[in-house]
Amino acid sequence: MSKSFRLYIAEPLTPKKTLPLTDEQSHYLKNVVKYTPNDKLYCFDNQNGEFLCDVVEQTKKQTLIQVKEQTKPFYACPDIWLLFCPLKKDKTDFVIEKATELGCRTILPVISQYTNCTSIKIERYMAQSIEAAEQCRRTDLPLIEQPQKLTDMLKSWDSSRTLYFMDETLESAPFFDLLQQEKNHKTAILIGPEGGFSEHELTLLRTLPFAKGATLGPRILRAETAVAAALSCWQLIAGDWR
Amino acid sequence: MSKSFRLYIAEPLTPKKTLPLTDEQSHYLKNVVKYTPNDKLYCFDNQNGEFLCDVVEQTKKQTLIQVKEQTKPFYACPDIWLLFCPLKKDKTDFVIEKATELGCRTILPVISQYTNCTSIKIERYMAQSIEAAEQCRRTDLPLIEQPQKLTDMLKSWDSSRTLYFMDETLESAPFFDLLQQEKNHKTAILIGPEGGFSEHELTLLRTLPFAKGATLGPRILRAETAVAAALSCWQLIAGDWR
Hints:
Two copies of one chain form a homodimer. By secondary structure, chain A is of the alpha/beta class. Chain A is built from seven helices and 13 strands. The interface between A and B is medium-sized, with 33 and 34 residues.
């Protein structure tokens, strides 16, 4: 039975080009999934789309591939950003993976008052998002920004981008009502940390003209659930699930 | 600082009633969260709502609580069922947790042709769903059914309940379009296993009058992501997030 694999390649792909895989990718193909010439290898480069590739050399030292025909045009995910407060390691992995699968264009780690995660590893986030992009067949990668304090980010916010913050106090409008009115395709979703937003942050968010509080039903969602839920709802109504 | 805790109690709660906690709950209050009389303990029983309770005895042997006033009426989640194919252990835990948070009334493990999980532990699923219900402040618990073969379940299906199956082939309508037309509040969502549905299953599903194929955008979602996404979309438009 032939299998198929997908890899992100960090340089531009064009038909007939020959290029080496990274050591990790070589190891993965050779030892983990045990690639054979019957299998199909699809590669994407985050700019030119997806291409079928041949493995033309596989030695101990390196794997060379040659690019064949294009199999998918480049497609950028909708212009939706996720602002999330880093959580414990496995929950943050989850957030990055789900945000990638759910078609987020940009992921911004933000430090709010009650964020109690001290180690933010952008390299790890990038590796997670590449793996998720390979798996869900994106041809683009989400951009992952350096962490910033939430209040600093709000100060320098481009006010033409709507910022929905998920409000656990149930004092905000249902997300559905806001999405029904949504005409702006530059959007961001902000999910608070496990402890929620501080009073100060909520007061600030409620005065910002570009920020809109939204509720996601009567149950209290964990932060990582709220990420998946809010992105799914946005994609359903305002994104590329229509 | 006072904290608050929430527990599910497997017998009917009425004001003034005194009753013992289970050994696990006693251990949790005493040794894990280190309950003190300053803290608040809320209990729910899956039939009468939520009540504030006092710990009236805490010994090595047992913990007794007394029920005080009602803090929430009983509320049953919308009549949405989740049919899912058991996955690896941690992914199944995730599915149960998210389905509970996202307000699923009934969870039905189904065995499809490509389901390759051999151990289905209903007891474990129930423990997971109780923990999630405590955390997300439900007053009801999802009902977790015994596993059944998918084809058997479809044979005995109550045809007045719409069954949406998430179709990775992209040949089905966007879920949004189907939800817009949704008038039926008896609904179920079916998510296939990692390997997708078999040809035979897809052919069968497409001929059943109560079954409707739905797509969730152009990216291929992992099974557990599709669970969270589909339930969120349903709650947003047809459930209790309005």
